[in-house]
Each structure stands twice: as C-alpha cells, then as structure tokens.
C-alpha cells in the first residue's frame, strides 16, 4: 500500500510535508464554522499506521472531522467503491504487491474529504455520503459502510452550508474567489472537470509565482529553490484543503488564512499516465492581504 500510494498518489505531497511547522493551533470545535452548522459528524482519527472510524454511518450530508494523532503530515482521500469490487479485490489491489493504481480506482466516487492535516491538527469538510461501501485511503486504508436512504440535500436549500466563497476545480487548474479575504472562512468547492481533483493548499513564507512552483516540481530536491530566489518545497506549509472530489461533485471546506502567498496543488494522478495533475500545470498561486484585495494567478500548463 505504501508503495502504491508513494508511487502515484502522495509522493509529491509527502515531499511537501517536509519539516512543516504548525502555524496555528488546531481551532477549538466551538470556533469552527462548519461544526456550527449542525450536520451529523463522522470522526476519523489517523496516526500514519491506522485509520479509526465507525464501521457504519448514516447516509446524508455529513461533517467529517479528521484528526491527525501521528507524527507525520497526513494526506488522504475518501472513495465510494464501485459496486462490483469486493473487499478481497481491494486487499489485493491495494496490497504491498501492487505496482500501479487499479483501474477501478478511477471508476470510484470521490465525495471529498478533509485536506492534508499536520500532526496534532484537525481539519473538517462537509460532504455528501450516498449509501455504499467506502474506503478512507492514506498510508493505509480502512473500509466502512454508509447506510440508509440516499440523501437529497438539494431539495432543501437551507441544508446547504453557507459559504464565504467558491473554489472551482477543473482540468487542470483552480479558480479561487477574487479577492481571497483573510481570516476563517468556508469555501464551497466544485469540480467542473472530467477527472477527479483535490485541493491541497499551502502557504509560502515569501512571494512566489506559479512558474517558480512548476520549476520546483521539475527539480529533484525538496530543499531546492527556484533560480533567482524563492521558497523550496520544504518551506511550503500545509493549511488544509479538500481531498479527491468527483467530476460534478461539490463539498465544503474551512480555511483560516493569514495575509501572505498561497499555493494550491492537485496531486490526483491522470488515469492514463498516472502523472499527478500538478505536473500537468494544476497549480495556482494567490495572495491574501489585510484588505482582502489579493490577486489569483494561475500556472500556464506546459504545452
Ligand atoms: Cu486534479
């Protein structure tokens, strides 16, 4: 499993994890905007070796709280497995012998999940869980069942989380609110592309451009810096985001942004080439200033 994920899913994200330092303490649940909305909560605790969560949860719009009790940054995602894939097949395909992601991985449904989480921190997301068998996938994986009637959240408008901004993910980039305001806020994240995407948000200690980040992507060391100066991968600090989200799906995440420069990545692999989308240009840079007058900038995809 480690090998599979290291090879295709989290390799670059793990390299990003580096010696990142928590910028702020985990917010108390009472401070959380998403937690205050009253959705049923699914608690997931990870430590790098195990993933703990209930065996069964009710279907519907759900607040997922991911707590990282381990020593390393944790980056994973949630999927609803295709109906015809058995637990036995999953154990084989995600086992230590696997060389490449199984084809069914790309046929699964990805409802969203809390984004990359530093040790000792918690992140939250509100996602829609339809009935079925699910897997949380990270360093290892853990199945669970979602049971009950299919949720129809769109039927009741008041059941939609109040968002401060919308983030659109597509093939292969992001569109952020413009400007992005500082402070704690809820983002409605939608995927209007043809492939699954994720939002892995980092903060840079100094200004950087998307082109410089692309230059880092092509480099060999996480300590390397762009020509002409700038941060290394190791300098980028995780601030949350959203795990894999299917085309056409929407989920909600909460971020707390101090003024500065932010870099967003997607490391979902292309189903044909297994190349992480970030390598295909799915990187965006935006700034947050005190007045909230930041300007988004997108990478130019390699031609
Ligand atoms: Cu992507």
Q: Layout of helices and strands, plus pairs?
A:
Blueprint: H1 2-8, H2 11-17, E1 41-46, E2 51-52, E3 56-58, E4 60-68, E5 77-80, H3 87-93, E6 122-129, E7 132-137, E8 141-147, E9 165-170, E10 173-175, E11 183-191, E12 197-204, H4 210-218, E13 237-245, E14 250-257, E15 260-265, E16 283-288, E17 296-298
Parallel strand pairs: 1-4, 3-8, 9-11
Antiparallel strand pairs: 1-2, 4-6, 5-7, 6-14, 7-8, 9-10, 11-14, 12-13, 12-15, 15-16, 16-17
The protein binds copper (II) ion (CU).
Copper (II) ion (CU) binds at residues 172, 197, 266, 268, 277, 282.
Spatial order of strands in the largest sheet = 2-1-4-6-14-11-9-10
Which small molecules are bound? copper (II) ion
Low-pLDDT runs: 1-28, 298-303
Distance from N terminus to C terminus (CA atoms, Å) equals: 33 Å
Supply the number of helical segments. 4
Describe the structure.
The protein is built from four helices and 17 strands. With 303 residues, the protein is mainly beta. It has one domain (2-151, 161-298). The strands form three sheets. The chain has an eight-stranded mixed sheet, with no helix packed on it. The protein is globular and about 55 Å long. The two termini are 33 Å apart. Residues 1-28 and 298-303 have low confidence and may be disordered. Copper (II) ion binds at residues 172, 197, 266, 268, 277, 282. Copper (II) ion (CU) is lined by residues 172, 197, 266, 268, 277, 282.
């Amino acid at each position: 499993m480690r090998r599979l994920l290291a090879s295709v899913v989290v390799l670059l994200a793990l390299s990003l994890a580096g010696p990142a330092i928590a910028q702020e303490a985990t917010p108390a649940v009472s401070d959380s905007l998403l937690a205050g909305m009253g959705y049923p909560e699914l608690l997931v605790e990870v430590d790098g070796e195990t993933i703990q969560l209930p065996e069964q949860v009710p279907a519907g719009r759900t607040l997922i709280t991911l707590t990282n009790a381990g020593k390393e940054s944790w980056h994973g995602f949630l999927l609803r497995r295709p109906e015809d894939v058995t637990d036995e097949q999953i154990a084989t395909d995600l086992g230590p012998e696997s060389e490449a992601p199984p084809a069914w991985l790309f046929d699964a449904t990805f409802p969203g999940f809390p984004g990359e989480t530093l040790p000792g921190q918690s992140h939250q997301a509100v996602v829609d869980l339809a009935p079925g068998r699910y897997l949380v996938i990270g360093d290892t994986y853990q199945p669970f069942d979602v049971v009950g009637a299919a949720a129809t959240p769109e039927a009741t408008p008041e059941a939609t989380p109040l968002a401060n901004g919308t983030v659109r993910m597509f093939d292969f980039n992001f569109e952020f609110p413009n400007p992005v305001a500082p402070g704690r806020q809820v983002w409605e994240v939608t995927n209007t592309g043809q492939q699954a995407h994720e939002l892995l948000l980092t903060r840079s200690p100094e200004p950087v451009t998307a082109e410089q980040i692309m230059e880092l992507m092509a480099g060999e060391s996480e300590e390397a810096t762009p020509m002409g100066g700038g941060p290394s991968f190791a300098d980028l600090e995780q601030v949350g985001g959203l795990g894999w989200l299917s085309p056409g799906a929407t989920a909600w995440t909460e971020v707390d942004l101090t003024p500065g420069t932010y870099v967003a990545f997607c490391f979902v692999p292309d189903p044909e080439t297994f190349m992480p989308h970030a390598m295909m240009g799915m990187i965006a840079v935006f700034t947050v200033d005190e007045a909230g007058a930041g300007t988004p900038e997108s990478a130019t995809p390699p031609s």
